[in-house]
Amino acid sequence: MNMISGKNIEIAYEKNIVIKDLDIEIKRGEILTILGTNGCGKSTLLKGISRVIPYKNGTISLENEIIHNINSKEFAKRLAFVSQNNEIPEDITVEEFVRYGRTPHKKWYELLNEDDEKIVSWAMEICKIEKFSKRKVMSLSGGERQKVWIAMVLAQKTSVLLLDEPTTYLDICHQFEIMELIKELNKKLGITIVMVLHDLNQASQYSDRVLVLKDGKKYIEGDTREVLTKELVREVYKVETEVEYYNELPYFKLRGLL
Question: Hey, what domains does the chain have and what are their CATH numbers?
Fold first, then answer.
């Protein structure tokens, strides 16, 4: 069963059409990575799926329901989105911020109960941030803050997680930590993951399938091992690469510009 599906999606910023006549199918429980050059519409597509921006034409469905027919609280219980440019209020602790993830499950006048607090603790434990739960979020490193964001949306208890360039600006150690965490959320908790990446080798290692966009349209979609080839990289990214295979997965070495 598809978790998310879309037909003839068109998304525009005023008169500038970014996503054009796009069909998508995202399977329940998979990791799908969206690839493509800068400006091809990757982040725009995520924002359309997450209702951050409206789509102009077509339909997008979550578990066979048109997303704009789902009320906001119910939608937030089912799908979470972590953008690449997140702002966190100053003077707030990690634990306080993760508690925000319970907001969709509460009425405006309700306080968090014992079950909510257990979920908050569980989310921090999964993301390995409980040791600095009392620290101010703004005092943390970029990689630590990214884990705090993931813990917050994990506390929402959604079945779908959208991530826009989750490893951007992070050093190689924190990139690895974040990607391993994403894999754990998928494999152990069954969360459907849709993410935008620039690193082809990360996409190869961590994705079940990839969707490649070019000029706002679907260029190709399919199994990671079948789609990611040196020919694809040459055609889409205009660079020459050398490919090696490890556990049947392709790894790319940049050789030069075309």
Answer: 2-227 (3.40.50.300), 228-258 (no CATH)
